[in-house]
Amino acid sequence: MISRRHLIRSIGGLSALGVSTAAYGVGVEPVLRLRVTRYHPTPRQWPADLPLKIAVIADIHACDPWMSLERIEAIVDRTNALNADLIVLLGDYVAGIRQVTRIIPSSEWARVLADLKAPLGVHAVMGNHDYWDDKTVQRMGRGPTVAHRALEAAGIPVYENDAVRLTKDGRSFWLAGLGDQLAYYPAQRYRRLQRFGADDLAGTLAKVTDNAPIILLAHEPNIAARVPARVALQLSGHTHGGQVRLLGWSPAVPTQHGLRLAYGHLRLKCDVIISGGLGCSIMPVRVGVPPEIVEVTLGRGALAA
Q: Is pTM beyond 0.85 here?
C-alpha cells in the first residue's frame, strides 16, 4: 500500500531537482505520456503450447482534469489496438485525489470502458478506492460498490472471490478474481474490525474444479507471498509503481514481509506482474513511471504469432 507519508516524502525529495522536474511530474508525465509495457513470462504452470495475450488496465482514477473521459477513450482505443485475447481491469476506477475539478460519475467512465473488446471478454475486480469512495458500503460492511454495479451495468463482469473457466483454441484455463484486500480499511476505526479486507484467497481457489492453469487478478500485490504454486500468474496494480521511481527504486512503496512489491515482474511461487497503472493517487504527480497499459504474452506459440 502506498502511504501518504511515504509518497509525500518521495515527492519532497524531488525539490532538489528543481521546479522543472516538479512541473514535468505534474503536467507532462501523468497527462501526456502513455506507453504499452510488454511482458513475456514463462510460468512453469502454464502450457508452453497455449498462446494467450492479455491486456491489463489498472488504476484509472477517473477525474477531471487528470483522467478525463477523453483520456479514458484514448486508453480504450490503444488497448483495443493490441488485439489481445483477453482484457482485465484491476480496480481503482474512481478518483484517488482531492485536487480535481470534477469527480466523474461511475456511470460515465463505465460507459467508456464498455467499448473495450476482446474475444475472451473483458473482466474486472475492484480496488481499495472503489470501496473507500462508497460510504454506504463502508457503513454496511458489504458490497457491491457503486463502481461494481456500474461496470456490470455496462456489461463487464466483476469478480469478488470468484473464478470463471475460459477456453482458447480448445484449451481451458481459469481466471480468478480476488476481493479487495483493503476494502474496509477506513471503517476499522469505528467498527473495530479484526480484518478489513474483502479477500478470500482459499475460497476463490476452491472454485477451481480441475487442473487447468489459473490466472489470479488481485488489485493489491501484497497477497503474492501467500499465493500457492497452483496459480500460474498473478496480475496486480495498486502501487502505481510508487508514482515516483528514482533509478528504478520506488521510495513510496515500503518493504513488507521481506518483499518490495512495487512494480514489474517477479517470480515467487507463481509469476507476479505489477502494473504501474494509469492514474494518480494522493497527489497528481508521476515521475519515472509513465502511465501504462500492460500487455502480457503467455506461451511460446503466442511469441511466434
A: yes
